[in-house]
Amino acid sequence: MTLKTMTRSLALAALLGATALTLPAMAQDPSTITGGFDVGPGGFQGNFNPLAATSGLTWLSVYYEPLVIYNAELTQLEGALASEWSMSEDQREITFTLVEETWHDGEAFTSADVKFTLELAKNAAAGSVFAARLGSITSVEAPDDRTVVVKLSNPDTGLLSTLAQVMILPEHALKDIAPEELATSTWWATTPIGTGPYKFTQYVTDQYVELAADEDYRNGRPLTDRLINRYFDNSAAAVAALRAGEIDFTYVEPDDAATLADNADYRVIEGASFVVNYVGFNHMFGLWDDVRVRKAFMHAIDRQAIIESLYGGAAEAANCGYVADQLVPADIDQYEYDPEKARALLAEAGWSEINGDKPITWLTYYNTPLAANVMAATQAMLSQVGINVVPRVVDTPTYNGIVYKEGTPDWNEFPLVYAGLQNGPNPAGINVGLNESQLPPNGANIMRVQIRMLSAAFDAALGETDPVAAEARWQDVCRVMNAELPWATMWVANRYGVASNDLVDFVWTPAPAGGPFASHPEKWSKSE
């Protein structure tokens, strides 16, 4: 179903206005591009620390840069701060050749900065979300200013994809801050410096962040003087600001995209999210020990009805962590909607004794009207088979604080979640959320999944160096996910952005976690 044929409407956008604030420039100013770059599930308003970024990388990558980065189509990696790289024959050593660049304060960027960043990112005490993901790195060497050698304990086919999200940081500015103090340092939101095309100017608390063009950027001085990232309470408020001419771009819900599709003033950008949405079972609690209970969830939820009625058909049901044809075996369980089977499975598992109709908190960070409707529909379907879930919506920082907390989780906070995790472009992306080696605080296995068979399947796929054999390995991961259901996988949906037609050479991709991806903001401009 296309945007033009969507019939469901969203009145909230007309009822909510944009957040009131005084900006240094309005969107009509041709020297300034203003957007809601952190609106929606790929954003992370208020986060300035790329080591702690579980999303929001669309904006952070405007003033920080990684070694390598995905192209805008998310099909292959290209160089960013590394001009080239090579892998040793045994795939246990990666050599990067660095570009010549300066930090925003004029200091030279060197291999010492890369070594410092990767060692910091491996340190969980620094609040890094990459600590476990970089676990295969045994050492980082800097033989000269333009060369970095990363040595691995074993082949890790997901490492370059991870490095695409690790923003390189300035050693000279951060070396005197103890790692355990970095997460709460004011540096990130007051005086940060990067190597990207724009440099930090100011943050007005809870209102906006302003960047200025870096006159000395290696790829040329940006065409636009300033970028402003405005904060909004929700996507409806951002759409109201877009319609009022206050911003040039924002993420939008499918309904709003449909209403703007025929408007000559805007360009609707549609693309696959590469994010699998799931109902996550907190495996620290015995409630979900019986796989029959987990399978009951799958049969109780009419995913296709939700996809058609709420997503307008712009989503694809997922029966494991993937939907790409080459990663999904044809013979896995499709988990068709069957409430009678769900009731039978719950009865066999003794659900009435395990929990019965006692309410179960269902935590999420998704605060959009679409997500609210999806959760309400799912709640009603689950109640029909005897599962009583109660949605609880919090902002992303609160959510992260709850699910990443060390020790035994509080039953009242998150026995169940509605969340998303990238399922591409590299299939290794979901390893961080499911492998038992990725348990918090080092990794993002927030549901504390400890299924040995699944971890072994991931480890085998990550260590497979033959591309042809690797495809079969990732299919094995899908098979185990489908049979064991560490999550109740729901769907992979499309996402939408809307940009003013005044923007020239503007690139946005609905990437997992907001990217990063090669959007080349130095080329963005506005027509007069």
Summary tags:
528 residues, alpha+beta, D-Maltodextrin-Binding Protein, domain 2, Dipeptide-binding Protein, domain 3, 11-stranded mixed β-sheet, 4-stranded antiparallel β-sheet
Task: Please give the number of β-strands.
Answer: 19
**What is the CATH topology of the largest domain?**
D-Maltodextrin-Binding Protein, domain 2
What would you report as the Rg, rounded to the nearest angstrom? Answer: 23 Å
Q: Roughly how many Å apart are the termini?
A: 36 Å
Query: Any idea what the CATH superfamily of the largest domain is called?
Result: Periplasmic binding protein-like II
Strand content: 15-25%
Principal-axes geometry comes out as globular
CATH architecture of the largest domain, by name, is 3-Layer(aba) Sandwich
Q: Low-confidence spans: pLDDT under 50, at least 5 residues?
A: 1-22
Helix % is 25-40%
The biggest sheet amounts to: 11 strands, mixed
What is the helix tally?
18
Count of separate structural domains: 2
Average pLDDT, all residues: 91
The SS-based structural class is alpha+beta
Output the CATH class name of the largest domain.
Answer: Alpha Beta
The quaternary state of the protein chains shown equals single chain
